[in-house]
Amino acid sequence: MKIAQLTPEISVASQPSTSDIERIAAAGFRSLINNRPDGEAPDQPESAELAEVAQRLGLEYRQMTYRGPMGEVASRFPQAPPRLRAACE
């Protein structure tokens, strides 16, 4: 999974797997926003599964289906701890 840094505090990448979330947490990210709706792709994990793994690893998790410029996502999550990572296809 390639992560693209938009600002020092915000990065984006493709849909993470549950094992990717472990790497995300280890890299120091503290929040994860999933912008994809459940069932969008047959191989994508369900939001509840991602949330469970993220929360177990200490990440704040939000399911926020959104279509548009990824830079706008941060404004929809104002209380996010630093090091925000958003996921989309």
Description of the structure:
- This protein has a single domain (3-87), classed as Alpha-Beta Complex (Protein-Tyrosine Phosphatase, Chain A).
- The protein has 2 helices and 5 strands; from the N terminus they run E-E-H-E-H-E-E.
- The chain has helices spanning 18-26, 47-56; strands spanning 3-5, 10-13, 31-34, 60-63, 84-87.
- It has a 5-stranded mixed sheet with strand order 1-2-5-3-4, with helices on one face.
- Helix 1 (18-26) runs parallel beside helix 2 (47-56).
- The longest helix has 10 residues, at 47-56.
- The mean pLDDT is 81.
Residue stretches low in confidence (pLDDT < 50, at least 5 long) are none
Please give the alpha-carbon distance between the first and last residues. 11 Å
Q: What is the count of distinct domains?
A: 1
Q: From the helix content, strand content and strand pairing, which structural class follows?
A: alpha/beta
How many β strands by DSSP? 5
Shape type:
globular
Helix residue percentage: 10-25%
Order of the strands making up the biggest sheet:
1-2-5-3-4
Strand content: 15-25%
Under CATH at level 1, the class stands as Alpha Beta
Describe the largest sheet.
5 strands, mixed
Question: What is CATH's topology name?
Answer: Protein-Tyrosine Phosphatase, Chain A
- The H-level CATH homologous superfamily, spelled out, is Protein tyrosine phosphatase superfamily
The number of helices is: 2
| Shape-level CATH architecture | Alpha-Beta Complex
Average pLDDT taken over every residue: 81
